[in-house]
Amino acid sequence: MGRFVYWMNVSVDLRIEQVPGDDGAGEWLHIGESLHREFNARARQLDAMVQGRVIYETMEEFWPAARTDDSLPEFLREYGEIWTDAPKVLVSRTRTSADYNTRIFGGDDAIEQLAQFRAETDGRIGVGGATIATQLLRADLLDELMLFTHPSILGFGRPLFDDYDRPIDLELLEQGSFEAGVTLHRYAIRH
Predict the structure, then answer these.
(1) Residue 150 burial (CB < 10 Å; 0-12/13-18/19+)?
(2) What are the pLDDT digits (tens) for 108-142?
(3) What is the DSSP letter of 153?
(4) How many CB atoms lie within 10 A of CB 184?
(5) Other residues' Cβ atoms within 10 Å of the Cβ of residue 28
(6) 11 beta partners
(7) What distance in Å separates the CA atoms of residue 145 and residue 153, rounded to the nearest whole number?
(8) What's the pTM?
(9) Each residue of 171-180: pLDDT tens digit?
């Protein structure tokens, strides 16, 4: 059975975007080469990725072209290859097609489809997007959080989870620090 891992860049106050539509590209993020190489290494360890429509479309807009863009540094081209080649599930009620090794789960039974996908997958499944992560958490399907915390307090903006109000016990699995004061905390969710 696979493990769903919600992987996200967050502010100290657990915000994932400062203004609607910044799509993880806010000035509060401190992503340099060594941190991106860490992202690359961790993404290579995933057996699949699950992404909500907004995250998927943000990724789809940049990463496929990035892999062959010689004006970009090698570590960004590398992530373009990783993202494009990885098996992916797009969770969307509106999309009916997707490229780049992507299946689509949608409709009212998307969470049941994801539960089945998790049961059939060995290894780690990266989760991108607050909406889908919140739904997986509510269904007791989310297994881990991998948070890259940037040294900024936003005070407002989109939270890590959407309207979730139950206490959750976590077990620290790993921690680390990177350039510009970015820290990693990886937690297991205790069900």
Answers:
(1) buried
(2) 899 999 999 999 999 999 999 999 999 999 999 99
(3) -
(4) 16
(5) 19
(6) 150
(7) 20
(8) 0.93
(9) 999 999 999 9
**Long-range own/partner contacts, residues 109-117 (CB < 8 A, 24 or more apart):** 110/135, 111/135, 111/136, 111/139, 111/141, 114/4, 114/50, 114/89, 114/141, 115/139, 115/141, 117/2, 117/48, 117/50, 117/89
* CA 35 – CA 87 distance, rounded (Å): 23
Q: List CB contacts of 131: < 8 A, sequence separation 6 or more.
A: 52, 54, 162
Residue closest to 33 by CA, chosen among 72, 81, 86, 83: 72
Contact indicator for 12, 151 with CB cutoff of 8 Å? yes
Between 33-44 and 74-85, two packed helices, what is the crossing angle to 10 degrees? 20
Question: What 8-state DSSP symbol labels residue 30?
Answer: -
Q: Is the pLDDT of residue 76 over 70?
A: yes
Structure tokens at 83: 């993202």
**What 3 state SS string does 134-159 have?**
HHHHHCCCEEEEEEEEECCCCCCCEE
HSE-CB for 141 with a 13 A CA cutoff: 24
Say which DSSP state 20 is in: T
Tokens, residue 43: 């993404």
